[in-house]
């Protein structure tokens, strides 16, 4: 790879690219090493090319002639022709992937439609029909009582304090034995 760069090195000098030999001077040699490091680690610039007339980088370059590039002898003409014939007349990998992706997505979507077509509806007419509630459902606020008829509430007022909407109001009074009992448990 280093031999490719030793043939001709392009160094930037006042917005123009100039050809220099790598051993032109001591300073040139260190610049050469820096250039080799930067070219080895930097990604290639795909859309930049040298304008033949001005020597500046043009924004929309023409593709170079393959016979004049540094890699012109890498693939010979018969080998290149064999590679082109191998894939001639077949759709590209991108076309195959897109066809497969869209086909599977359409099949999945149609399967979901068919599944839901034969299911009973999930909707209920809410005020007239109510969904099933679990025996441990705790969303309904009510003053509960023991089977003996005594209230379960001891009027600690924790539910009134914890309610984010401030919708629960509790009033209590003292009993003869010193404990408290709820006189009013209100929802507003």
Topology, element by element:
Layout: H1 2-7, E1 9-13, E2 16-20, H2 26-41, E3 49-50, E4 57-58, H3 77-86, H4 93-117, H5 158-162, E5 168-174, E6 180-187
Antiparallel strand pairs: 1-2, 3-4, 5-6
Distance between the termini: 82 Å
The helix fraction, in percent, is 25-40%
Biggest sheet strand order reads 1-2
Q: Average pLDDT value? A: 72
Largest sheet: 2 strands, antiparallel
Sum this structure up briefly.
By secondary structure, the protein is an alpha+beta fold. It has helices spanning 2-7, 26-41, 77-86, 93-117, 158-162; strands spanning 9-13, 16-20, 49-50, 57-58, 168-174, 180-187.
Account of the protein in words:
With about 190 residues, this protein is of the alpha+beta class. Among the domains are: about 1-70, no CATH class; about 140-188, no CATH class. The protein is built from 5 helices and 6 strands. The strands form 3 sheets. Strands 1-2 form a two-stranded antiparallel sheet. A two-stranded antiparallel sheet has the order 3-4. Strands 5-6 form a two-stranded antiparallel sheet. The longest helix is centred in the middle third of the chain and has 25 residues, at about 95-115. It is elongated, with a radius of gyration of 41 Å. Residues about 1-25 have low confidence and may be disordered.
Attribute tags:
188 residues, alpha+beta, two-stranded antiparallel ribbon, two-stranded antiparallel sheet, 5 helices, elongated, disordered N terminus
């Amino acid at each position: 790879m280093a031999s490719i760069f030793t043939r001709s090195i392009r160094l930037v000098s006042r917005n123009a690219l100039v050809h220099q030999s790598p051993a032109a001077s001591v300073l040139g040699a260190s610049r050469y090493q820096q250039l080799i490091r930067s070219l080895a680690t930097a990604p290639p610039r795909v859309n930049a090319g040298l304008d033949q007339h001005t020597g500046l980088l043009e924004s929309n370059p023409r593709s170079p002639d393959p016979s004049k590039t540094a890699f012109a002898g890498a693939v010979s003409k018969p080998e290149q022709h064999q590679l082109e014939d191998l894939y001639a007349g077949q759709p590209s990998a991108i076309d195959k992937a897109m066809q497969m992706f869209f086909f599977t997505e359409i099949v999945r979507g149609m399967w979901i439609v068919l599944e839901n077509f034969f299911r009973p509806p999930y909707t209920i007419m809410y005020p007239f029909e109510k969904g099933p509630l679990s025996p441990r459902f705790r969303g309904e606020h009510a003053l509960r009582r023991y089977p003996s008829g005594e209230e379960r509430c001891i009027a600690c007022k924790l539910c009134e304090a914890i309610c984010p909407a401030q919708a629960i109001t509790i009033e209590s009074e003292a009993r003869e034995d010193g404990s408290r009992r709820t006189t009013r448990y209100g929802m507003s």
